[in-house]
Design brief:
Blueprint (H helix, E strand, L loop, with lengths): L24 H26 L4 H41 L15 H36 L4 E4 L5 E4 L1 H7 L3 H4 L10 H5 L4 E4 L8 E11 L2 E10 L1 H39 L8 H32 L7 E4 H11 L6 E3 L5 E4 L1 H24 L8 H5 L3 E8 L2 E8 L25 H11 L3 E6 L6 E8 L3
Helix pairs in contact: 1-2, 2-3, 7-8, 9-10, 10-12
Length: 473
């Protein structure tokens, strides 16, 4: 009968049909222990049976020699195997990451004692490294949790394996609902497919913000993973955009002012000298009418230009602690075209420039009132009840969220076809609008460390505008 080849000592293969039988280490020690004691026992037995003692005495003494031989062999076996079993248990505990076991009787200048000392030193080293690893992991987890930038880790199958609180906030879901889902399912497929250090938009959950994507690779249990870190660069981009508009406005304002003033002056001078021109009455009236139009348009254009220059000359806010409820009530009282409903929130203090924030809220409330009145004055929007259209409504309330105050202004106007364009300077849907109200309001909010988000209301007509401002202390 053949059997599978087995490796022998030195890596040689045993021939087929031969099986090398090797005793266990413990059995070999037992065998060697008995063999070591065997010569002495045989000599003792021979000497006993060479004596002239009685047979009974010789048998008794021979039995005693055998017992001693057995005891000595067992003691030798115990002293050899037991320490090694102890060391094996210690090493096994280390393999199971249990560092509480130590080998006893470890002394120097002893072969087995030296081995026990080395095993104990290894256990101390591994225990120290484990503590350091746990502390480092806890520190890393804490740092990841405190990072404001959304952070995600995906495995090779694009399945989410790690997300920090900022990522949960961005996706508006808890980690327990996100982990185990693919990038496509949670709306982050563009972040994985985009090039490193590129910009992506996540309109579904971030209010149209622009995000800078940073990707890096790491390995976990040998499998390659992708770490994605998102940075909101919307405010920085808006600052650059605002700076560009401000430079443009300053240049245009300078050039137009240099032209408008002389045009208006010349038009006025010519109008005063028409009586000396010798023109007939009809021609004189035509000239007067034309010069009046020129003078009126230059005056109107100058007012138009001064309104836009507010974007370029907005002063820095003077921050003070201000009570929010009286400020909101004062703004609502100033609106006389429609009664603004206030749902009182907490009595909270905010760190703002009261004059700038009041002007900002006046602009925002005025826009909401105009939208509501526009819907009630027109034909309305299909799909809305007549009662809702004929009863314009603007409500205002505030709550405290994460050391900030969120002030919400709701209206039941027609809503916006493209809310993302609302904050673009000079963009307006009103025939007589300037297109700077919302842009100026967002500039004021961001100068205070806050933000403004405008969106159509879910499930009903109208818009909702959320203003976030920092709380005091």
């Amino acid at each position: 009968m053949g059997s599978s080849p087995q490796s022998g000592g030195g890596g040689r293969k045993m021939p087929k049909g031969r099986k090398r039988v090797r005793l266990l280490y413990e059995n070999r020690i037992s065998l060697y222990s008995f063999l070591v004691a065997l010569p002495g026992s045989l000599v003792g037995g021979i000497l006993i049976w060479m004596q002239t003692w009685s047979t009974q005495s010789k048998v008794a003494l021979s039995f005693a020699v055998l017992v001693v031989w057995w005891i000595l062999a067992l003691v030798l076996h115990e002293q050899t195997v037991k320490p090694l079993q102890t060391l094996a248990n210690v090493v096994g505990a280390l393999r199971e990451e249990d560092y509480s076991f130590r080998a006893r009787g470890a002394v120097a200048e002893d072969a087995l004692g030296e081995l026990s000392l080395e095993v104990n030193a290894l256990a101390d080293l591994l225990a120290d490294q484990r503590i350091r690893a746990i502390e480092a992991t806890a520190l890393l987890r804490r740092v990841v949790e405190e990072i404001d930038a959304p952070l995600f880790a995906f495995d090779p199958d694009r399945v989410l394996r790690l997300v920090n609180p900022a990522g949960e906030k961005l996706l508006q879901q808890a980690a327990i609902r996100l982990l185990g889902r693919t990038a496509d399912e949670i709306g982050l497929a563009d972040c994985l497919s985009a090039a490193n250090e590129s910009l992506v938009a996540l309109p579904a959950n971030s209010g149209g913000a622009r995000w800078l994507v940073r990707q890096s690779k790491f390995r976990e249990k040998g499998a390659p993973h992708t770490l994605v870190v998102l940075s909101d660069v919307s405010r920085a981009l808006r600052e650059e955009e605002r700076s560009a508009w401000q430079r443009l406005i300053r240049v245009l304002g300078h050039e137009l002012n240099n032209s408008l003033a002389p045009i208006k002056s010349i038009a006025g001078s010519l109008g005063g000298r028409l009586g000396e021109s010798g023109l007939n009455e009809e021609h004189r009236r035509d000239f007067e009418r034309g010069l009046a139009i020129i003078e009126a348009r230059t005056t109107s254009l100058n007012r138009f230009l001064q309104a836009y220059r507010q974007l370029a000359q907005m002063p820095s806010p003077v921050i003070k602690k201000v009570a929010l409820p009286p400020l909101v009530e004062r703004v609502a009282f100033l609106e006389t075209r429609l009664a603004v409903e206030i749902f009182p929130g907490p009595d909270v203090m905010v760190m703002v420039d009261a004059d700038q924030i009041e002007q900002m809220l006046i602009n925002l409330v005025r826009n909401a009132v105009e939208a509501a009145l526009e819907a009630s004055a027109g034909d309305g929007v299909s799909g809305n009840s007549v009662e809702e259209i004929q009863n314009p409504r603007v409500t205002l309330h505030w709550v405290v969220e994460d050391q900030s105050v969120v002030l919400t202004i709701d209206d039941n106007g027609p809503g916006l076809l493209n809310p993302s364009n609302a904050f673009v300077p000079f963009y307006t849907t009103k025939p007589a609008g300037s297109g700077i109200g919302l842009a100026l309001s967002r500039q004021i909010a961001e100068a205070h460390g806050g933000s403004i988000v405008l969106a159509n209301q879910n499930g009903k007509r109208g818009c909702q505008l959320r203003v976030t401002l920092p709380c005091a202390g």
